[in-house]
Amino acid sequence: MRGIGVVVISRNEGAFLRRTVDNLEDTLPGSSSVVVVDDGSTDGSADFLAERNGRARLVRARNLGVARARNLGASRCRGDVVVFADAHIALQADWWRPLVEIVQQPGVGAAAPAIVNLGSAPRIGYGMQFKGPSLDVRWFHRKPKAPCAAPILPGCCFAMRREVFQAAGGWDEGQLQRGNVDTEGCVRLWLLGYELIVTPETVVGHLFRKRSPYPVGWAEYLHNRMRLAWIHLNPERAGKVVAALRHSPRFGEALWLLLDGGVAARRREMLAARVRDDDWLFERFGMRW
Hints:
The structure is a single chain. The chain has 2 domains: 4-206, Spore Coat Polysaccharide Biosynthesis Protein SpsA, Chain A (Alpha-Beta Complex), CATH 3.90.550.10; 218-284, no CATH class. Helix content is 37%, strand content 22%. The protein has helices at 15-27, 47-50, 66-76, 96-103, 162-167, 181-191, 218-232, 235-245, 251-259, 263-273, 278-284; strands at residues 4-10, 33-39, 56-61, 81-86, 89-90, 108-117, 124-125, 128-130, 137-139, 148-149, 157-161, 195-206. Helix 2 (47-50) links the parallel strand 2 (33-39) and strand 3 (56-61). Helix 6 (181-191) packs parallel to helix 7 (218-232) and helix 7 (218-232) packs across helix 9 (251-259).
């Protein structure tokens, strides 16, 4: 392995960003690199990176959104394994080692650790699945005995071989702002023929916040869910998603965003590239709705 590149997306993270960066620098092997993409912070939280000589490098952007910011960060970091990390996580020594071992296996598209809530009610989760046509997700809380497949991996600490990241086309830049970027990426990787694995013995802490430190557009959030459905799901299943979301505030605006985002061309592209369909994925994990 020629090193690990960690991409951290940050916006108004306050003191959490410094803690996460220090934690990464303390626990990563020496050949690793860290790129922090500050996506338009107004709180000065990333300024310390411009003032010191450490392993972490700062890339400034402005309102790219999670998908495009992650792609930018991946283009600026070194390493044949890329880890996408939130700016409010806590990592233990050697957290990276099981993830790297898993993603180097043929056929594996990505790996993620178990996640524990750093808030007041800690509970460990081992990947997720869709709850229903609104595309909300629920965590698996029963600890598996060994690394195992999960339909959706947590994006707060998500490892991939760089060659897989490039072959899959990176994160979908048609996804706006934040919300459901990780779920779309996971569905796409499964349909392209990869396996997604959770490593239960590695536990990473993540701060689940009730409020975002920056404004999040509800129309964009709904758009991302419908974009996933219209690109990757069959017409009947996509119709159920639309029906589940259509009474949400800003639904009409989200629909216009979807129609303006080249969704039909993207669907044709994905249908031509994938080796599995969504029926296979839903049957594999017993998701029935």
